[in-house]
Amino acid sequence: MSDRTYAILGTGALGGFYGAKLQQAGLDVHLLLHSDYEYVSKHGLVIESVDGNFTLPQVKTYREVQKMPPCHVVVIALKTTQNHLLPDLLPPVVKDDGVVLVLQNGLGVEEEVAQIVGSERVIGGLSFLTANKVAPGHIRHLSYKNIILGEYTHDYHPGGITNRMQQIGEDFKSAGIPIELSEDLLLARWQKLVWNIPYNGLSVILNATTAELMADVHTRKLVEQLMYEVVAGAKSCTRIIPDSFVQTMLNNTANMKPYRTSMKIDYDARRPLEVETIFGNPLRMAQAAGANLPYINCLYQQLKFLDAKNF
Amino acid sequence: MSDRTYAILGTGALGGFYGAKLQQAGLDVHLLLHSDYEYVSKHGLVIESVDGNFTLPQVKTYREVQKMPPCHVVVIALKTTQNHLLPDLLPPVVKDDGVVLVLQNGLGVEEEVAQIVGSERVIGGLSFLTANKVAPGHIRHLSYKNIILGEYTHDYHPGGITNRMQQIGEDFKSAGIPIELSEDLLLARWQKLVWNIPYNGLSVILNATTAELMADVHTRKLVEQLMYEVVAGAKSCTRIIPDSFVQTMLNNTANMKPYRTSMKIDYDARRPLEVETIFGNPLRMAQAAGANLPYINCLYQQLKFLDAKNF
Predict the structure, then answer these.
(1) For residues A208-219, b (16+ Cβ closer than 10 Å) or e, as one string?
(2) If you write DSSP's letter for every residue of A236-258 in order, what string do you get?
(3) Which residues of B touch A216 (CB under 8 A)?
(4) In this complex, is the C-beta atom of A310 within 8 Å of any C-beta atom belonging to chain B?
(5) Longest dimension (CA), chain A
(6) N or C: which end of chain A has fewer CB within 10 A?
(7) How does DSSP assign A165-182, residue by residue?
(8) Pairwise CB contact (< 8 Å): B302 & A212
(9) Which tens digits make up the pLDDT trace of A2-37?
(10) Among B21, B79, B145, B192, which one carries the catalytic annotation?
């Protein structure tokens, strides 16, 4: 059993699910909560999952990072719209030889985190979890749960597979989470954007499920054009995503059950949208490399308008 | 007084307003109606206008073109979404030496009409009318009313100012309608699209007034990018629209009262949208000339989706 300690910053669907799985596997897990602090402190966590339900009547909860022990691994499980809090949240809770695992959507967050804790203490993570928080401390896990890990390096040059990645990977595997170790975090992030940009964006703008977007010949074409622009953006950063990847994403999504994207769920709940990390940062990174991505830019500006109007 | 006879196909806000003005000026006007036929036949037309209200208790109404006399000038005042009816509507009602005035939005409609009546019998018209039909036969005219006329020629080469344009122009002027005669119909149509494409499209997609679109820094930028793409589309057809035209459109709209576009009004009333003539035809014309217009294409595909879902 690993003696690594985990701090989970944000106990929504993602933080709650992975935190509970790690604790269930015997790891020492410390949860930061905000609105659900009282409830979860008293009642613990309930995980309803396709893999089997379980409850953790007792979990270590905190309302302030100052009261948390410095941990080996600090998982950022907040929405990126909360990232203005990170300069206050991170320093007290990261052990000197600890790492911060940025388990968030989009692009460019590792750079922000590196400015706070130093780039040698940052690992990126991509989560493919489908889960919702249905009540305080009550998480419903629907299908996927896998994670890709990748080392962050200054300027995002490929960081290879490191020991600490393997160690963290082992912890998650022991908790039943499929883990893939990527030598190239930036490539993995662009690959995830191939799906996230078209479906998250259009689902909000057009009030549509993935199934509706795929059933209409015009939006299906638009999804494909957006995907190829993400591929062009990746290429401007010297990351090559093959056409077959785009076709696989299209086919998989066409065969999925109708799905309400996470950005649509946020929009319907009138929560702020992760527009900057999913759209703004990739656009700016590609633009700095000389690539113009008009379809993505069109969605970005539409989403900024809708996000501002949604309060 | 001119002895030219006018047939008005479609007696909504546009056909009703111009038809009433022409009849009031003493011209012989014949109105084709559909749903309002019974009411208008009995009660005539009521025009409530910033220029002064007036009523026409008796107007010449028809439910079928077969009963209309062949006229010197046939004004197409239908929405372009009804243009599949034109092959049946036009032939009986155009005099041998008559002309069809295509008083519709967008691009490419004259070509369709030319295939029905011959290109020598087509004139294009752009209306800048702000008016609504508030009840059967009751039209409320709010501000603008001017018309631009231009000769249609095969391949849209500039047709110059012809006698018949001047004659029709005189009729409208005698009815108090400001008329501009354009030597180049295609240029005039592209110029109108500079406004119509961004505001009509985004107002539907983002559920917004012109004022909201101009107040937000992101949509204001997107409007401008769309306008410059229309300029690029025009250029691909060898029509030059200066940058100052774009800036004037932006400034004028920013200084306008909040305005619900005609496409938004149609969308809210669950009527079909003029997507093909305002977006599809310009896109295809530019594409045939080798120009790629991604922002406009993005809006086109979004609007096709929303239009199909709106029934």
Answers:
(1) bbbebbbebebb
(2) HTT----HHHHHHHHHHHHTSPP
(3) 304-305, 308-309
(4) no
(5) 54
(6) C
(7) HHHHHHHHHHTT--EEEE
(8) no
(9) 789 999 999 999 999 999 999 999 999 999 999 999
(10) B192
DSSP secondary structure letters along B23-34:
HHTT-EEEEE-S
Are A263 and A200 in contact by the 8 Å Cβ rule? The answer is yes
* pLDDT for res B72: 98
A247 Cβ partners below 8 Å, 6+ apart? none
Alpha carbon of B205: minimum distance to chain A alpha carbons (Å): 7
Tokens 């309930």, located at residue: A46
Chain A neighbors of B204, CB-CB under 8 A? none
Question: At which residue do the structure tokens 């209309």 appear?
Answer: B68
The residue whose two tokens read 């509507």 is B89
Cβ B301–A218 below 8 Å, yes or no? yes
Does residue B304 have an active-site annotation? Answer: no
Cβ atoms within 10 A of the Cβ of B208, count?
A: 23
State the burial class of residue B252 (Cβ atoms within 10 Å of its Cβ: 0-12, 13-18, 19+): exposed
Question: Quick check: helix, strand or coil at residue A10?
Answer: coil
Question: pLDDT, tens digit, for every residue of B26-82?
Answer: 999 999 999 999 999 999 999 999 999 999 999 999 999 999 999 999 999 999 999
- Is there a contact between B222 and A299 if contact means CB atoms under 8 Å apart? no
* Cβ–Cβ gap B302/A216 under 8 Å: no
- Between the alpha carbon of residue B266 and those of residues A186, B198, B204, B271, B273, the distances in Å are 45, 16, 9, 5, 6
Specify whether the backbone of A145 is left (phi greater than 0), alpha (psi in -120 to 50) or beta: alpha
CA distances, B48 to each of A19, B206, B246, B260, B301 (Å): 68, 31, 32, 19, 38
Residue of A216, A218, A298 with shortest CB distance to B295: A298
Q: Of A52, A109, A51, A108, whose CA–CA distance to A78 is shortest?
A: A109
Any long-range contacts for B170-173 (C-beta under 8 Å, 24+ apart)? B170/B2, B171/B2, B171/B4, B171/B6, B171/B22, B171/B25, B171/B27, B171/B73, B172/B18, B172/B21, B172/B22, B172/B147
Instruction: Supply B115's token pair.
Output: 């295939």
Q: How far apart are CA B32 and CA B63, in angstroms?
A: 6
Q: In order of start, what are the domains of chain A with their CATH numbers?
A: 5-183 (3.40.50.720), 187-309 (1.10.1040.10)
| Nearest C-alpha neighbor of A262 from the set A136, A145, A80, A130 | A130
pLDDT, tens only, B129-156: 989 899 999 999 988 899 999 999 998 9
For B254-279, how does the pLDDT look when each residue is reduced to its tens digit (9 = 90+)?
998 888 899 999 999 999 999 999 99
Distance, in Å, from the CA atom of A246 to the CA atom of A227, rounded to the nearest integer, reads 6
A227 CB near a chain B CB, below 8 Å? no
The pair phi, psi for residue A127, each rounded to 5°, is: -105, 135
CA distance B81 to A202: 26
SS3 of B206-248: the string is CCCCHHHHHHCHHHHHHHHHHHHHHHHHHHHCCCCCCHHHHHH
Cβ-Cβ contacts under 8 Å, A299 against chain B: 298
Q: How confident is the model at residue A96 (pLDDT cuts 50, 70, 90)?
A: very high
Rounded to two decimals, what is the model's pTM? 0.93
The share of chain A scoring above pLDDT 70, in percent, equals: 100
Active site residues of A: 192
Q: Which amino acid is at A10?
A: G
* Record: contact B216-A308, CB cut-off 8 A: yes
Verify whether the Cβ–Cβ distance A212 to B309 is below 8 Å: yes
Residue of B308, B311, B281 lying closest to B297 (CA atoms): B281
Mean pLDDT of A219-244: 98
